[in-house]
């Protein structure tokens, strides 16, 4: 089977199957062997691993994964790509393609059914318009995985690994860093794709913590506070939390909590660490 990691081979396959790009799926096909090899290397695959690939497209990355892993389960939402995948992956007996929406798929059940309940290593070249919902679903649903190696818009990767105080730091940074250690391994230019996107990309690996960094926390309350804190970045933390309808907190309670930590009432959410948000959440919802 031809290596799809070149512009000519990708165009040949698309023309062979008379495939037309679906704008609603944000399709950009990777055509750089160097980047493909770097993604597979970053994922640290072994012959004992089962890979869950999200959005295999025409099977370019899938081929690289199948050469390195024990098994690849590729989840593709676009039905029009299924005949192409049947063609390009016909030589790989260790690949299973599932036609499904990853946001609606029960990954715990899939792990039990296809991987004896063991965690996956997830690899994906995600459509930029839906990157954040997919990442958050994987993290917040406690889906069974060891790591996520993913190509995303550079701006999103910067937000995932941002630290307190910067313009990129926000709810996504805190959600990712609560569950996993983020590490950017490669920056990718638009010339590595067909068609070329209008933005630069990054490969980022999220290595899941065996235990959450803050044991015993009420995750639902914690992330409700975090989302409210960044809902309107120009607002102070006191106003953001007091005005959040789903938190039902009085202005007095919020101000008292902030003053109890010795924080200014003009402080904003981007100044707080994950641990400080957890401490704040505990005080805001204490029964005393």
Give a verbal description of the structure:
This protein is an alpha/beta fold and 288 residues long. The chain has 2 domains: 7-208, Rossmann fold; 219-284, Orthogonal Bundle (Helicase, Ruva Protein, domain 3), CATH 1.10.8.100. The protein is built from 12 helices and 9 strands. It has helices at 7-16, 33-42, 60-68, 82-88, 107-114, 131-140, 154-160, 171-179, 219-229, 237-242, 251-260, 274-284; strands spanning 29-30, 50-54, 71-76, 95-99, 120-125, 145-153, 180-188, 193-194, 201-208. A 7-stranded mixed beta sheet has the order 4-3-2-5-6-9-7, with helices on both faces. Strands 1-8 form a two-stranded antiparallel sheet. β5 (120-125), α6 and β6 form a beta-alpha-beta unit. α6 (131-140) packs parallel to α8 (171-179). The longest helix is centred in the last third of the chain and has 11 residues, at 219-229.
